[in-house]
Amino acid sequence: MTRVGAETVPEPPRPGMFSNARVVGDRFFLSGMHAGSPDGVVGGDDTYLQAVEAFRRVRELTEACGAHVDDIVVLRLYLTDIADKGDVGRARGEVFTGDFPCSTLVEVSALVDPGLTVEIEAEGIVGASARRLPFMHRSVGVGSDVTSG
After folding, report:
1. pTM of the model
2. From the CA atom positions of the chain, what is the Rg in Å?
3. CB 93 within 8 A of CB 85
4. H helices of the chain, where?
């Protein structure tokens, strides 16, 4: 297991408490990324701008893990106001070029720092985007697979 960092992503304030990213074999895991910084929240109270910054950090850490952003297979997104899901969706759409990762989006009462409105966790498999198979749809009860490209 290897701890990974990126120069443009702030490290945890108390080193040793957690890691921003870990690589285990060909899998990588990113802690929740947000727009917080020692100077305040990047993007102020604008959830779209906070999401853009959080996704920038996700991209930087993913690349530091030796992967491409399209190698991300799972996202977990936390919002303090579910009404902002469109803003986060717009930012997400600016990041991924292939099929979107599997995703969970939940509303939470608060994040680690006041003023934060969105936090994004990610995990993936290095090289997964290069090995992507065509979409497979399994018909329930029929027992045959139908592919589409």
Report:
1. 0.83
2. 17
3. no
4. 47-64, 85-93
